[in-house]
Specification:
Keywords: Membrane, Transmembrane, Transmembrane helix. The protein is of the alpha+beta class. It contains 25 helices and 30 strands.
C-alpha cells in the first residue's frame, strides 16, 4: 500500500494533482457502475435486480455478480458522489495491500518469518498480473482469496476442519464468480499437489478426496443464491458466445512468453492481445526453478509439480486450454486472465525450495540459474523486434536483477541476522521497478475531465427532473461513457456491459445504431426512433457555455434536436423537449406483432415499425436525394465497384447538396465504413462517426436553413473505402408526424414506478389494439391487467406488448430475476448441511491424517 500510495502521489493522482486511476475500462465502464452501486445502497435497493438505465432496461443481478459484490466497494459509501475517482484510488490501495497480506499469511503458515513475509507479499501484490489488471479492479478479490483458500485447503487435506475452506471459497465465488471459476480449476491441481506432498496412503487419499469434493460443493451451494440467477442471465446473454470450434495449436511462438519475465513487460497494445502477465521478480522465478533441483523435497512432489507446471505453461499457449480457463469463450481484451494463479504457483514453489536451502546454492545450482538468466536475456535481446513492449534498457535492467539474484541466492546464509532484510529489500526494489516501468506506460483520465463532465450532465438531468417527475428517457449529444445514465441516475439508452444481452445488440443494429457484442450506443437517432423509444428530453451543448467546461465530448450531430421545444438551459447544456415522444407505452395496432426486422436495412425497419404501429400499409418515409459528386482529392476510384483508394494521407472524397426544405436530412454510411475507415466533416465541422456498427447508419446532416449549399467531406483513414452505399435521404416530416400524432393520443399514463415495477392506466378505443411498450421482454417480467395475470406478447422480437380489449385498464408490471428463489433455496439448504457438518465434527476429533 505504501509503495503504491507513493507512486500515485508522484503521478499526481487527485488530490495531489489532476490525474486519477481511471483508464480504459475503469474510466469508461466501472466508475459508472460504482456510482450505480452507491445509489443502490443509498436509497434504491431495487436497483440490485433491475435498472431502466441499463440500455433500454435490463437485469442487474448478473451485473452485480460480475462487477459489484466486492466488500471493498463499501469504501465508495465514504466519499461524496463527486469524488468517486478518489474512492477508487483508495480501493485500489486497499486491494494491493490485502493481496500482499494474504500472500504473507500463506507463507507464514508454511514456516517463513521475519522480513521474508513482506518480501513475498510484495512480489505477489505487485506481480505482472496485478499491475496489468489494476484497471479491472473487481478481479483482484479472487487473487486476494487464493492464498487464503490454499491455506485452508492444505488444512483440509491434513484432516482438519473444512469450514475455513468452505467459507473462503464461497466468498470468492460470491464476490466474482468469473475469476472464481478460474480459481476452482486451479484448486483441482493444487489439491493434487497437497495430497502428494502430505501422502498417507490410498485409503487416506480416497477419504480426503471425498472431503474436498463435499466441501467444494458446499461452497458452491452457499453461493447458489448468486450463481444460479447469474447462470440464467449468462445463458440469455454472454453464454451464447461460447466457442465450440477450436484448434490444437500454439497461439504464439512459445519463446515470446519469456518477455513477460522482463521489467515493465506491458503496454497498451498488450491489453487487446499479448502473452500472460506472470512477472514475480527474479528471486521468485529462480526459486521456482530451484524447486526441481532441491533433493530435500520428495521426488513424487517434484514430479507432480512438474506436471502441473507444464499444464499451466501450456494453458497460456495452447488454444483449447486457454479457452477452458475462460469458460470456453475467447476473452475480449485482457488475454490469459487466469495467470494470477501462475504467479501464485511460482511463488509457492519458490518459497518451498528456498525454505529447504537456507545456506546458499551449490556450484552447479549457481551455474544452472546463471545460465538460465543469460539464456532468457539473450533470447529476448536477439528477438527484441518481436517484443514491442520492451526496450534495450528494460532487458538490460532485467539482466542485472537476474544476475544479482543469483549472487544473493549463492551467498545466502539465514544464520546472519541481516539476510532476510537484504532479500526483502532486493525483492521490494525489483517489484517496485517493474511496477513503475509498467504503469508509466499507461495514460489516465484527468480528475477535472471526469468531474466537470459528470457535474455538467448532472445539472442538465436535474433541470429536467425538476420540471417533470414522470417516466421517460433522456437523450444527449455529448458522451463521456456509454454508462453515463448509471453515473448520474436517469433512464437513457446506452450501455457498456460484459453481461450485454445479444437481442439488445441486434435491435440497435437493426435500427442503425452503434453497437458491438459488449455495448450499445444511441448515437445517430432519427425523428422516428426518438419518438418510438420515448426520448422525451434532450441535452445538447450550448454554443457558448456560461461556464467553460473544457470537456463535453460530442457523440453525434443532431441539428434536428434544435427544432424540438427548448425547455431551458444550464451552464453548459440546452434542455429540449421532444413533442413527438410516444411515452414508455402507448396504444398501437396489433399489426406490429407481425412485423419482422430486416438485416442491414435501418431505414426500412424504421418505416415498417412506424407504419405498422399506426395500423397503416407500408409506405416509404425516407426519400432518396441527389448529391453532386464524388469529387476526389489525392485518391483514385474504380467506377465499376465504387472503391476509392487513397494516394496520400490527405485523400478526400467530397459530396455537395442543397436542401430546399426544413425536413431532416440523413447521410447513409455503409457498414464498410465501421472501425474508423473515414472521418466526416460538414462545411468544415467534424461530424462524429461511431467507432463500431454492423449495419448501415444514418448521420444527421440537416442544414441550419434551407437553400444553403452543404459540403460533405470524407477523409480516408484506411487505404481503401467502398462508396457503393453512400447516399443522402430526406425524411418526410409531414408524413412522419401524421403517423405519430394518433399514436400519441392514448399513452400509458404511468402513475407509479419503482426500480422493479410499473403501474399505470391506459384507454383502448377500438379492437385489434395493444399496449405497446419499449421495455425489453426478458424473462422475469410479470404483467397484470386490472389485477388479473396477462400474457406477454413480444413485439419486434424484443419489446413487451399486451393485447387489450376496448376500455380503460390498469396495467401493472413487476420484475424478479429468474431462478432467484431456486438459488436462495439451494443456499439455505447448503447452509443447513454445512451447519450439520460443523455440529457433527467438533475440533477435538481432528488430528493430522485422521
Amino acid at each position: 500500500m505504501l509503495i503504491m500510495a507513493v507512486y500515485f502521489i508522484a503521478r499526481g493522482v487527485y488530490p495531489f494533482g489532476n490525474s486519477s486511476v481511471l483508464t480504459v475500462d475503469m474510466g469508461q465502464q466501472y466508475i459508472d457502475f460504482y456510482a450505480y452501486f452507491r445509489s443502490t445502497v443509498f436509497g434504491h435497493p431495487g436497483q440490485l435486480f433491475y435498472s431502466f438505465s441499463n440500455a433500454l432496461g435490463g437485469d442487474m443481478y448478473g451485473t452485480f455478480a460480475y462487477y459489484l459484490l466486492s466488500p471493498y466497494n463499501l469504501v465508495l459509501l465514504l466519499f461524496p458522489k463527486t469524488m468517486l475517482d478518489v474512492a477508487v484510488a483508495v480501493m485500489t490501495l486497499l486491494k494491493y495491500g490485502s493481496a500482499g497480506l494474504a500472500m504473507a499469511y500463506y507463507l507464514k503458515t508454511t514456516g517463513w518469518r521475519s522480513w521474508w513475509l513482506p518480501a513475498w507479499g510484495t512480489a505477489y501484490a505487485l506481480s505482472g498480473w496485478m499491475l496489468a489488471n489494476q484497471l479491472n479492479l473487481m478481479w483482484f478479490d479472487g487473487a486476494i482469496c487464493l492464498p487464503l483458500i490454499a491455506v485452508a485447503l492444505a488444512n483440509l487435506v491434513a484432516g482438519r476442519r473444512p469450514f475455513a475452506y468452505i467459507g473462503w471459497l464461497a466468498a470468492a465465488i460470491v464476490v466474482n464468480y468469473y475469476i472464481a471459476f478460474m480459481l476452482c480449476l486451479f484448486l483441482v491441481g493444487y489439491f493434487g499437489y497437497e495430497v502428494v506432498r502430505q501422502w498417507a496412503g490410498w485409503r487416506w487419499f480416497a477419504r480426503q478426496t471425498a472431503r474436498f469434493a463435499a466441501a467444494s460443493m458446499a461452497a458452491a451451494g452457499l453461493a447458489a443464491v448468486i450463481v444460479i440467477p447469474t447462470l440464467v442471465q449468462l445463458r440469455l446473454g454472454k453464454g451464447t458466445y461460447t466457442t465450440t470450434d477450436f484448434h490444437w495449436r500454439f497461439e504464439y511462438a512459445p519463446y515470446r512468453q519469456l518477455g513477460k519475465f522482463m521489467l515493465g513487460a506491458f503496454n497498451f497494445d498488450q491489453m487487446p492481445s499479448g502473452q500472460a502477465n506472470v512477472f514475480i521478480g527474479a528471486i521468485g522465478v529462480l526459486g521456482a526453478v530451484l524447486f526441481f533441483t532441491q533433493r530435500t523435497i520428495p521426488v513424487r512432489e517434484r514430479l507432480f509439480a512438474a506436471g502441473w507446471s507444464l499444464f499451466l505453461t501450456l494453458s497460456v499457449m495452447v488454444e483449447p486450454l486457454d479457452l477452458l480457463w475462460h469458460g470456453l469463450q475467447f476473452p475480449s481484451w485482457y488475454p490469459y486472465r487466469f495467470s494470477f494463479v501462475i504467479c501464485f504457483w511460482l511463488l509457492v514453489l519458490a518459497g518451498r525450495a528456498l525454505q529447504g536451502q537456507p545456506t546458499g546454492l551449490t556450484w552447479w545450482q549457481m551455474l544452472l540459474t546463471l545460465g538460465l538468466v543469460l539464456a532468457v536475456v539473450a533470447t529476448v535481446w536477439l528477438n527484441l523486434a518481436h517484443f514491442s513492449y520492451l526496450t534495450e534498457w528494460q532487458v538490460g535492467a532485467s539482466a542485472l536483477f537476474g544476475i544479482a539474484a543469483v549472487i544473493l541466492l549463492t551467498i545466502r546464509h539465514d544464520g546472519r541476522a541481516a539476510t532476510a532484510a537484504i532479500f526483502a529489500m532486493f525483492m521490494v526494489i525489483d517489484s517496485t521497478a517493474n511496477m513503475v516501468t509498467t504503469l508509466n506506460q499507461l495514460s489516465y483520465i484527468s480528475h477535472s475531465d471526469y468531474h466537470t463532465y459528470t457535474e455538467s450532465l448532472r445539472a442538465g438531468v436535474a433541470h429536467i427532473q425538476a420540471a417533470d417527475s414522470g417516466t421517460y428517457r433522456i437523450g444527449k449529444t455529448v458522451t463521456r461513457t456509454k454508462n453515463d445514465a448509471m453515473q448520474v441516475g436517469y433512464m437513457g439508452t446506452d450501455q457498456f456491459n460484459s453481461m450485454m444481452a445479444p437481442p439488445t445488440v441486434q435491435l440497435f443494429e437493426d435500427l442503425g445504431q452503434s453497437e458491438n457484442d459488449g455495448f450499445v450506443g444511441y448515437t445517430n437517432g432519427t425523428v422516428i426512433t426518438d419518438a418510438l423509444l420515448d426520448l422525451k428530453y434532450w441535452l445538447t451543448p450550448r454554443p457558448t457555455p456560461a461556464v467553460a467546461t473544457g470537456f463535453l465530448p460530442s457523440s453525434g450531430a443532431r441539428p434536428d434536436v434544435s427544432r424540438y421545444d427548448e425547455l431551458g438551459r444550464t451552464g453548459d447544456l440546452i434542455v429540449s423537449r421532444n413533442p413527438n415522444a410516444l411515452g414508455l407505452g402507448f396504444v398501437a395496432s396489433t399489426d406490429i406483432l407481425k412485423t419482422k426486422r430486416a438485416a442491414n436495412l435501418a431505414m426500412l425497419n424504421q418505416e415498417l415499425i412506424l407504419t405498422h404501429l399506426a395500423g397503416q400499409p407500408y409506405r416509404s418515409l425516407f426519400d432518396l436525394q441527389t448529391m453532386t459528386g464524388p469529387k476526389l482529392h489525392d485518391a483514385t476510384i474504380k467506377k465499376q465497384t465504387q472503391v476509392v483508394t487513397k494516394v496520400t494521407d490527405g485523400a478526400t472524397v467530397t459530396y455537395t447538396f442543397t436542401a430546399p426544405t426544413t425536413d431532416p436530412y440523413y447521410l447513409q454510411l455503409p457498414v464498410a465504413f465501421s472501425d474508423n475507415v473515414v472521418t466526416l466533416t460538414q462545411n468544415g465541422t467534424d461530424l462524429p462517426i461511431p467507432d463500431s456498427f454492423r449495419s448501415s447508419i444514418l448521420l444527421n446532416v440537416t442544414p441550419t436553413a434551407p437553400g444553403e449549399k452543404q459540403t460533405l467531406t470524407l477523409t480516408l483513414q484506411k487505404s481503401t473505402a467502398n462508396l457503393t452505399d453512400v447516399a443522402l435521404y430526406r425524411l418526410n416530416a409531414a408524413a412522419t408526424t401524421a403517423l405519430l400524432t394518433p399514436l400519441r393520443q392514448n399513452p400509458w399514463h404511468i402513475t407509479h414506478r419503482s426500480d422493479t415495477s410499473l403501474r399505470g392506466t391506459v384507454t383502448v378505443e377500438a379492437k385489434h389494439k395493444l399496449l405497446m411498450t419499449t421495455i425489453p421482454a426478458v424473462p422475469g417480467w410479470r404483467v397484470t391487467v386490472d389485477g388479473q395475470p396477462a400474457t406477454i406478447s413480444k413485439a419486434l422480437k424484443y419489446f413487451i406488448a399486451i393485447r387489450l380489449k376496448p376500455g380503460q385498464h390498469t396495467v401493472t408490471m413487476t420484475y424478479r430475476p429468474p431462478a432467484l428463489g431456486l438459488g436462495a433455496a439451494i443456499s439455505l439448504a447448503s447452509a443447513a448441511l454445512v451447519g450439520a457438518w460443523w455440529w457433527c465434527t467438533p475440533t477435538g476429533r481432528h488430528r493430522k491424517h485422521s
